[in-house]
Amino acid sequence: MSHSDQNLNLTLRVWRQDGPSDRGRFVDYKVNGISTHMSFLEMLDVLNEQLVAAGEEPVAFDHDCREGICGTCGVMINGQAHGPDNETTTCQLHMRRFKSGQTIVIEPWRANPFPVIKDLAVDRTAFDRIIESGGFVSVNTGQAQDGNCLPIPRQDQESSLDAAACIGCGACVAACKNASAMLFTSAKVSHLAQLPQGDPERSQRVVNMVAQMDEEGFGGCSNTYECEAACPAGVSVEHIARLNREYIKASFCSTAVPATKSK
Amino acid sequence: MSQMELHSDVPGGPLSEKWEKHRNEMKLVSPNNKRRFDIIVVGTGLAGAAAAASLGELGYNVKAFCYQDSPRRAHSIAAQGGINAAKNYPNDGDSVHRLFYDTIKGGDFRAREANVYRLAEVSGSIIDQCVAQGVPFAREYGGLLANRTFGGAQVSRTFYCRGQTGQQLLLGAYSSLMRQVSAGKVKMYPRREMLDLVTVDGMARGIVCRNLKTGEFETHAAHAVLVCTGGYGNAFYLSTNAKGCNVTAAWRCHKRGAFFANPCFTQIHPTCIPVKGDYQSKLTLMSESLRNDGRVWVPKDPNDSRAPQDIPEEDRDYYLERRYPAFGNMVPRDVASRAAKERCDEGYGIGETGMAVYLDFRRAIQEQGEDAIRSKYGNLFHMYQKITDENPYKTPMRIYPAVHYTMGGLWVDYNLESTIPGLFVLGEANFSDHGANRLGASALMQGLADGYFIAPYTVGHHLAGRTIKPVTTAHPRFEETKNEAKDRVDKLLRINGTRTVQSFHRELGQIMWDYCGMARNAQGLNQAIDKIRLIREQFWKQIRIPGSGESFNQQLEMAGRVADFLEFAEVFAQDALTREESCGGHFREEHQTSEGEAERDDENFTHVAAWEHVPNGEAKRHVEPLEFENVELTTRSYK
Amino acid sequence: MSWLTGFLKSTVGRKFVMALTGLFLCFFLVVHLSGNLLLYVGGEAYDKYAHALHSNEEFLMLAETLLFAAFALHIVLAFTTTWENKSARKTGYRKTESKRDDRAFPLLLAPDYTMMVTGLVGMLFLIVHISDFKLEFGWGLEDMTPAQKAGLIVSDGTRLIIYMAGAIALGIHVSHGLASACQTIGFNHPKYTAGIQLVSRIFGVVVALGFSSFPVMAQMYPEWFQFVGTVTTGH
Ligand SMILES: Cc1cc2nc3c(=O)[nH]c(=O)nc-3n(C[C@H](O)[C@H](O)[C@H](O)COP(=O)(O)OP(=O)(O)OC[C@H]3O[C@@H](n4cnc5c(N)ncnc54)[C@H](O)[C@@H]3O)c2cc1C
Ligand code: SF4
Ligand code: FES
């Protein structure tokens, strides 16, 4: 257990892009005296303070909670979504994972449905549209019966929560060679498919959500499972298998047909 | 002093019948007319998402706004512990009245009885609603809902989803919201920051916001505006809040006439990971539940340099157990926080900074085994280790209090309406239900109560009961307000000084922490006011924001928020200065017992302090007296 | 949109067809390999098997049509989905590195990342193979028993390279393909996932070793493949 605080000198190779229509380029920056106790985003804060002091525009990156739950942060760090640690978001990654003198390549999530807004910040509203297409239970406020009317086996509830734990960060898309959003989409399908509340709409839900996912321009799943390894919430590819089952069942054994909205 | 009468509009009758009676009496909008009304909901946390979804379901046209890229990311997502409800599923004697009483007592008798009672009343429906949405609450093996205990209560009434209850509740509300988006009843505007409120003839009629992606200023008109923008803990710079949490929306409403109530009521949570270095950007909460098994201590000898695990029992001071033998490590948050500060101020603090105490699981591990502890707190221990690189199974955790929640907020009446007609305030952004201290697992309850079960009725009452003349964004007030907001932004960009936003925010935070933190005194608060004014002045001369206002510019966003914190902080300090008593999270050193416990002054301060903005003058303090007809004011004692 | 077009247009639906055709082709590989292995039993066994197979014209036609259709679908879908998948990310990364800690190979060589390459090599091999065995192009194999033909072809030096490359490529292809197909049709569960992965890998090895064994053995033990002709073709 190391408690010692060391300082790192690093070269950051950062993707800079002024706006969606800019072509973008890599720029190298040096940051010195980075404490190993800093989080990765705190290290970027230091870089930005340095840039502002020099009168340059700071590097734009999305972040909010900085404790791994909101899903706002996320960049590719040396070719890995959210960096080298498993089940860790960029904001939870600490600099003790790096060595002095290292060059760190920092890139935004790249996928056509996630256009770059600026530098490392991308637009992930495609995810919202996927949820909008069916990731809900149609129950109005006030219509609910008593919470204990529907017993749910504990294993089902736990497994459903495993899927519902998705933070919507987009690392799965970023890490997938096909820029596929299957892990994200399956997490919601699987969450609701395992609960009785989700049952009445299960066929229409999966059919719609898959159609919307495709409409957004994400690639297909070729089962390389890089998404699972990159997922900070530990969402398993078993949920993708469940989506596949649900989708096949819905397509062949129900009357559901897809309804999509264009972007 | 000419004080405005604050009408809380609490209906008459017995406490337990007030809400029912009010619901029966409120005006209704007929189903066909609902689509004629536009409603703006700013914020998509539990309060905002729940309100927007419910109003959309009713048939209103809703526009919802948030500063994040998606409504799913509001800071409610970070809540760990759970949500209270008086379901009495465990059959341990819980009731609406008990939940009401615990909450009002926990708030140190500085909240409005009728509001808190209503909160307890609707708490059960919240759980039902969330279950119906598919929120995967923890279950017993028989498949029924499980409960856990939380601080400040003698019954088990907290519903939870592992350590991520807020996330699951928010995703439930978010899914309902997205359903209304797909139904065309809600239009979602993410990456928008509300920069001002538009009032026409004294009524809230719209907002001005900036599109954070493009820098464009937009105006939106409506028949009612709901502000659900969360708390202002980030006035302290370091807090457990998300980086973007701000006071801007609430502050701008305040400057347009909404009163700000009890701004000094801040909750400082005792178990957070201590500050490591001056680069630190936020603090991480370690759930309150850890104190069920963890024991808090410092070495008896301040110069003890041994590793904590090598310090024998007789050389440890378990100061909470020593001071509060009855409650021990489970005293409420405010008490635990102050006790930690006292030890550290006396020089007993541990670590390089001396601003930390130990939270030790040795005994629990010995008694219950490491596996039992892992199954209860595994994810928290894991998170602790990730951040600190220390193994809490072997070495005690280091913890220190941190700013966590703000009980104060915009003043609202029983209908959750502010002093500006048509402006409703929901969730942490209002002041209503937690008095001077909030009990664990009650903020989620309040946000959802406001959003699902209160605002949908009371907003309808406003729409049906008042004459609201047609107004569009073409009304000159919109252009005017937009230009004022734009000017502020342009001014910020023009300064082109030498200092970064973050440096100002840090400086403000340090002052707030030192003078307006866990212990306050008149001298310190006066100093704070002077210092805040000084920084504010420097801010408007020295700030440097590279880039332009016509694009995605995060420094500019932050600068706007810090500018508002700098104005707000002064009212905060004023409020702390004028509340000459100690209650809940507000501890005035001048008002303590000989044993160092808080001393409340019920005679002079059983009231809400609501501040009115006076253009170019000092804010004016109004009071709303609090009447307690159903509970007896007692001194909280945990000895 | 009709449900079927909707299904077949969707990424999941198309992958389903890929998976079904893939599984069918895997099944074919098993049958084919089992048949071929009879060569090690002896020329007669192999010839008998070949005759039995060819004795039922209708069955053969049907099987060949099905096979051809499966191949065609599998290949066409492979090209279209790969193309679409590639174009879902217009700007690529400067650097990519796997986060899976169970990867045995670097991404450039990993079976799941090289499906297109192994598939293509397999396809080229297939063309040669069909031309050799079905069309008997350029060999002059008249009046030989099936075993003799096979012996002759696999003993050829150029075929050593082609057949080995094809077999290994196919082995790698199916080592990912079989497990992947199971996942795609929804056959994945904590209980059997590990088993499926294992079976898939073993299958890959069997295919690679099994099919490449013939040309290799033919080089090492040429006498094994000198079959004495006893039976003539046809009934
Ligand atoms: C770490 C942590 C743990 C907690 N754990 C618990 C717990 O276990 N139990 C419990 O009951 N409570 C807990 N709380 C408290 C509780 O989570 C919050 O009080 C509650 O979720 C607040 O909800 P809200 O809807 O009022 O605001 P938020 O969820 O903060 O939402 C604010 C919304 O307003 C928007 N917004 C803000 N400013 C603007 C602006 N200027 N323009 C446009 N939009 C804006 C944001 O985008 C966001 O959508 C915890 C809090 C923290 C920080
Ligand atoms: S599935 Fe995992 S990686 Fe994908 S969005 Fe959800 S949390 Fe992120
Ligand atoms: S900033 Fe919220 S998950 Fe990283």
Automatic annotation (TrEMBL), chain A:
InterPro entries: 2Fe-2S_ferredoxin-like_sf, 2Fe-2S_ferredoxin-type, 2Fe2S_fd_BS, 4Fe4S_Fe-S-bd, Beta-grasp_dom_sf, Helical_ferredxn, SDH/FRD_Iron-Sulfur, Succ_DH/fum_Rdtase_N
Protein name: Fumarate reductase iron-sulfur subunit
Source lineage: Bacteria, Pseudomonadati, Planctomycetota, Planctomycetia, Planctomycetales
Span of domain 2Fe-2S ferredoxin-type: 10-110
One GO term of the biological process aspect: respiratory electron transport chain
Gene Ontology MF, one: electron transfer activity
Domain 4Fe-4S ferredoxin-type: 157-187
Names of required cofactors: [2Fe-2S] cluster; [3Fe-4S] cluster
Family statement drawn from the similarity comment of this UniProt entry: Belongs to the succinate dehydrogenase/fumarate reductase iron-sulfur protein family.
Any Pfam family hit: Fer2_3
From TrEMBL, chain B:
Domain FAD-dependent oxidoreductase 2 FAD-binding: 38-444
Biological process according to GO: anaerobic respiration
Domain Fumarate reductase/succinate dehydrogenase flavoprotein-like C-terminal: 505-638
Lineage top rank: taxon: Bacteria
Topology in the lipid bilayer: Peripheral membrane protein
Gene3D superfamilies per record: FAD/NAD(P)-binding domain, Fumarate reductase/succinate dehydrogenase flavoprotein-like, C-terminal domain, Succinate dehydrogenase/fumarate reductase flavoprotein, catalytic domain
Compartments, as annotated in UniProt: Cell membrane
Pfam families linked: FAD_binding_2, Succ_DH_flav_C
Keyword Cell division attached: no
Keywords: Cell membrane, Electron transport, FAD, Flavoprotein, Membrane, Oxidoreductase, Transport
GO molecular function: electron transfer activity; flavin adenine dinucleotide binding; succinate dehydrogenase (quinone) activity
CC per GO annotation: plasma membrane
Active site: 333 (proton acceptor)
EC assignment: 1.3.5.1
Cofactor(s), names only, from the UniProt record: FAD
Xref: PANTHER family: SUCCINATE DEHYDROGENASE 2 FLAVOPROTEIN SUBUNIT, SUCCINATE DEHYDROGENASE FLAVOPROTEIN SUBUNIT
NCBIfam families per record: PRK07573.1 (NF005749), sdhA_Bsu (TIGR01811)
Family: Belongs to the FAD-dependent oxidoreductase 2 family. FRD/SDH subfamily.
Protein name, as recorded: succinate dehydrogenase
Species this protein is from: Thalassoglobus neptunius
Name of the gene encoding the protein in the UniProt record: frdA
TrEMBL record, chain C:
CDD domains per the UniProt record, alphabetical: SQR_TypeB_2_TM
Keywords associated with the record: Membrane, Transmembrane, Transmembrane helix
Gene3D superfamilies: Fumarate reductase/succinate dehydrogenase, transmembrane subunit
Matching InterPro entries: Cytochrome_b-558, SQR/QFR_C/D
Transmembrane segments: 16-39, 59-83, 104-130, 160-186, 198-218
GO cellular component, one term: membrane
Name listed for the protein in its UniProt record: Succinate dehydrogenase/Fumarate reductase transmembrane subunit
